[in-house]
């Protein structure tokens, strides 16, 4: 049952004027008991967690690859990427397919999350800058903190979290060390 749950093919203007409070749309998801968000324009689709082919000698956060309609798509375990333990797969575990810019153009990456929540519109005035300390993840991974119903949602900087250059460097380091961490 590898059905598409959602698709990110919306036409949303990305131009924002200074002082413009047009809400931006974010896909929210749970990971390790916390709520995170990704800009909806980066999200291509959400699929049910299926068979992931492991690749030897990769860092622990690179879970493997999947076949997505004939294309090989690397799958990143966000929990492990943030320095935690590998995600334990449950009934609600999903893979969010995200399109990022890399040196070779656009690239699709799969991101394992505990559960997808909803798409939220968060006005720019309700987004605070990332904290300089106190977060459980690297500060450069955080684009901002969105205030939603009196709680904070961590808005991820997809270009930093899923930096293909950094991931490739970490994979090379893992190979040179002779281990997969």
Automatic annotation (TrEMBL):
Single biological process term from Gene Ontology: signal transduction
InterPro entries hit by this protein: CheW (IPR039315), CheW-like_dom_sf (IPR036061), CheW-lke_dom (IPR002545)
Cellular component GO terms, alphabetical: cytosol
Location of the CheW-like domain: 23-167
The organism of origin for this protein: Parazoarcus communis
Source domain of life: Bacteria
Name of the protein in its database record: Chemotaxis protein CheW
Lineage, uppermost ranks: Bacteria, Pseudomonadati, Pseudomonadota, Betaproteobacteria, Rhodocyclales
SUPFAM superfamilies the UniProt entry points to: CheW-like
């Amino acid at each position: 049952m590898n059905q598409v749950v959602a698709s990110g093919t919306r036409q949303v203007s990305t131009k924002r004027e200074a002082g413009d409070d047009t809400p931006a749309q974010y896909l929210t998801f749970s990971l390790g008991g916390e709520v995170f968000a990704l800009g909806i324009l980066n999200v291509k689709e959400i699929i049910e967690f299926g068979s992931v082919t492991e690749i030897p000698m990769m860092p622990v956060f690179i879970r493997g690859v999947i076949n997505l309609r004939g294309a090989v798509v690397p799958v990143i375990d966000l929990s492990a990427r943030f320095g935690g333990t590998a995600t334990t797969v449950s009934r609600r575990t999903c893979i969010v397919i995200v399109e990022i810019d890399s040196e070779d153009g656009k690239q699709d990456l799969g991101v394992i999350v505990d559960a997808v929540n909803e798409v939220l519109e968060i006005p720019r005035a309700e987004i605070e800058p990332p904290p300089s300390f106190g977060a459980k993840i690297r500060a450069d991974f955080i684009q901002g903190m969105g205030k939603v119903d009196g709680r904070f949602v961590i808005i991820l900087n997809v270009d930093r979290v899923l930096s293909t250059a950094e991931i490739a460097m970490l994979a090379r380091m893992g190979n040179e060390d002779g281990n997969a961490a």
